[in-house]
């Protein structure tokens, strides 16, 4: 058990029969009335963010979660197979637990967040940025920049399609943001 004085960003708590992480919090002491804590809580399973206000000093149940480093091995009918990088233990996770399963390629690092008390995997995160090779994109036409932010679709090595600038060609290596599937930059060879 912890109180609202112990709140930190990233802390995981049990709230309304579900797990939430604290995204943001603010202690407020108004001129009149008791103090309270205004928070933004993110549901671990759905990713939905809710606003909630706790009275100051209220006890909350803290959930122990651990972040464990894994490596993606392969995908089969059991799901996505991962290997723990320290213990070499293998697990299979379903696609819904990943933030960007279409950007996974063999050997990529994956961080699995596990509820430590029940040993249940909650979700799996890829690094913020991954490098990918463009397998196909239409060539950009010279003078085809009617707007300042001209983008075209490109297929990358995992089969996913993302929007890239017109100067990107087939076989270029690019950096992709896994959080929103956006182009970040071209990687120099």
TrEMBL record:
Keywords: Cytoplasm, Elongation factor, Protein biosynthesis. Belongs to the elongation factor P family. It is found in: Cytoplasm. NCBIfam families: efp, PRK00529.1. One of its GO terms (molecular function) is translation elongation factor activity. GO terms for cellular component: cytosol. It comes from the Bacteria. InterPro entries: Elong-fact-P_C (IPR015365), NA-bd_OB-fold (IPR012340), Rib_uL2_dom2 (IPR014722), Transl_elong_fac_P/YeiP (IPR020599), Transl_elong_KOW-like (IPR013185), Transl_elong_P/YeiP_cen (IPR001059), Transl_elong_P/YeiP_CS (IPR013852), Transl_elongation_fac_P (IPR011768). The keyword Disulfide bond does not apply. GO terms for biological process: peptide biosynthetic process. Involved in peptide bond synthesis. Stimulates efficient translation and peptide-bond synthesis on native or reconstituted 70S ribosomes in vitro. Probably functions indirectly by altering the affinity of the ribosome for aminoacyl-tRNA, thus increasing their reactivity as acceptors for peptidyl transferase. Gene3D superfamilies: 2.30.30.30, Nucleic acid-binding proteins. Pathway: Protein biosynthesis; polypeptide chain elongation. The keyword Cytoplasm applies. This is Elongation factor P. The gene is efp. Pfam families: EFP (PF01132), EFP_N (PF08207), Elong-fact-P_C (PF09285). Residues 130-186 form the Elongation factor P C-terminal domain. SUPFAM superfamilies: Nucleic acid-binding proteins, Translation proteins SH3-like domain. Residues 67-122 form the Translation elongation factor P/YeiP central domain. CDD domains: S1_EF-P_repeat_1, S1_EF-P_repeat_2.
